[in-house]
Amino acid sequence: MTCGTRCRGMSFLLAGASGALFGAGLLVSGMTLPEKVRGFLDATAWDPSLAFVMGGALLVYALLFRWISKRRRDPWFDVMFHLPTRQDIDLPLVTGAAVFGVGWGLAGACPGPGLVAAATGNASALAFVGAMLLGMWVFGRTSRS
């Protein structure tokens, strides 16, 4: 199957629908609330609700990935599956993970929930997304790759 204009349009539509469903799930579960995330990270007053959200997401992903990989050789709306091939751990990966973790702990948000919260007009979420976009821009301008 070749992926022409119609295929790309359908891919865009499905990506938008997936993003909307993901955002709705974040809102319903309360994961756009920084205090919820901080409660998960606080060992003295632990709130396990984020663990249940992440566990549910991992369960759905694991089951569907296994099911799809056994039944499909290629995706419906692309010419091939795009799976990661690198398995090494390098300094940029470790640094990025550390920056993500520190930012997640300090802000109580990560990119997905931050974007959803910003879409509601929340001022601190808008500042978070602005800082995130600035960081992405700086990285893009300074990275060697």
Question: Which helices and strands occur, and which strands form pairs?
Answer:
Layout: H1 5-29, H2 34-41, H3 49-71, H4 91-107, H5 111-119, H6 123-142
Helix pairs in contact: 1-5, 2-4, 5-6
Describe the structure.
The protein is an all-alpha fold. It has six helices and no strands. Helix 1 crosses helix 5 (111-119), helix 2 (34-41) crosses helix 4 and helix 5 crosses helix 6. The radius of gyration is 18 Å and the shape is globular. It starts with a helix and ends with a helix. The mean pLDDT is 87.
Give the topology string: H per helix, E per strand. HHHHHH
> Quick one: how many beta strands?
0
| % residues in beta strands | under 5%
Which percent range fits the helix content? over 70%
Number of helices: 6
Nearest-angstrom radius of gyration? 18 Å
What is the terminal-to-terminal distance? 32 Å
Shape: globular
- Total count of domains: 1
Which stretches of 5+ consecutive residues score pLDDT under 50? none
**Multimeric organization:** single chain
Mean pLDDT: 87
Helix vs. strand class: mainly alpha
Q: What can be said about the biggest beta sheet?
A: none
